[in-house]
Amino acid sequence: MDPATDPVLDPALRDRQRQSFGPAADLYDRVRPRYPADAIRWILEKVPAGATVVDLGAGTGILSRQIAALGLRVVPVEPDEQMRAKLADVDPSMAPLAGSAEAIPLPDGSVDAVLAGQAYHWFDHPVAHVEIARVLRAGGVFGPLWNERDESVAWVATLSQVAGETHNHDADHPGLGQLGTGGQFGPLEMVLFHQAMPHTPESLLELMRSRSWHLTASPERRAEMDAAILGLCATHPELAGKTQFDLPYLTRAYRTRRLP
Which domains, ranges and CATH numbers included, belong to the chain? Predict the structure, then answer.
């Protein structure tokens, strides 16, 4: 990531980015990739049938709907009112709760698992770890997961460069290293999953417009990034002349258990 836009280095920018998704809720729900079903199943491998699972930082319910499809009871928790409204509109059977990772509106020891899809990096980790542990039953699972563009593919790496959004997962998610230090959680496991999403140049542009760094950029910077993304699609040797192509992802799934 460009240091000038790194939210770790600029807390005010981080807050603007964290709060930027609500006005783009329709776009977010339409273009963001879903998660590999195998990744969700792996996180919840030892969770009993009929378990209650919190989707923390649920957004528009992309992950919530996938958890529900596995036959589990889902409790979406989301701080942004517009994202909650979109979630309820897409699936009226779900009733998202207003809350955050630092203030989960549920009783102590009341849930079997807490998942966080594309959300854990926004948490205040020391506070969130205590709160997640509070609502989990002993032996319950906490599982953050991310879809990340596979930058080992040349054109994807170039896409991240022109957007100013390159990834270093370990550096971007320091909270993961804190999970085992507070006495609430056991060892952290990780499995990597692969998937690919079909795109056109236009849908790729929409996807990148749903990212927080684009949503919070100036109009001039947004126009510059849009032109660079479409230019990449038109000129990169792996994409030029293609009306449709696959965007490869690495999905990193983590799980750890609440200690007694």
Answer: 3-257 (3.40.50.150)
Contact assessment for residue 23 and residue 82, using Cβ atoms and an 8 Å cutoff = yes
Per-residue pLDDT of the chain (260 residues; tens, 9 = 90+): 333 334 444 665 556 554 556 557 888 899 899 999 999 999 999 999 999 999 999 999 999 999 999 999 999 999 999 999 999 999 999 999 999 999 999 999 999 999 999 999 989 999 999 999 999 999 999 999 999 999 999 999 999 998 877 666 665 677 898 887 789 999 999 999 999 999 999 999 999 988 877 888 889 998 999 999 999 999 999 999 999 999 999 999 999 999 99
Q: Which DSSP string corresponds to 176-204?
A: GGGGGGSSSB---EEEEEEEEEEE-HHHH
Neighbours of 219 (CB within 10 A): 7
- Classify residue 230 by burial, with Cβ atoms within 10 Å: 0-12, 13-18, 19+: middle
- Predicted TM-score (pTM) above 0.85: yes
Secondary structure E strands in 134-244: 136-149, 189-199
